[in-house]
Amino acid sequence: MSDAPDRLLTPKEVAALFGVDPKTVSRWALAGKLTSFRTLGGHRRFREAEILAHINPTPTQAEEV
């Protein structure tokens, strides 16, 4: 595993990966379906590794869903 920090994605970038509107991504975050945090400026950000895990789950994650 690398020591580099995880890349942070904007709602627009996450929306492009899922093929949905950025507002949908924000609603998913409010509903607790995606984990996000706020920057000092109040903007929502998502960890790339977590988003990619939702898109390409490992076999054990797929069984849990």
- Give the spatial strand order of the biggest sheet: 1-3-2
Helix content: 40-55%
- Order of H and E elements: EHHEEHH
- Round the mean pLDDT to the nearest integer and report it: 88
Task: State Rg.
Answer: 12 Å
What distance lies between the first and last C-alpha atoms, to the nearest angstrom?
A: 26 Å
Per DSSP, the total helix count is 4
Question: What global shape is seen?
Answer: globular
Total number of β-strand segments?
Answer: 3
Based on helices, strands and strand pairing, what is the structural class?
alpha+beta
Task: Walk me through what this model shows.
The longest helix has 10 residues. α1 crosses α2. The chain is an alpha+beta fold and 65 residues long. A 3-stranded antiparallel sheet has the order 1-3-2.
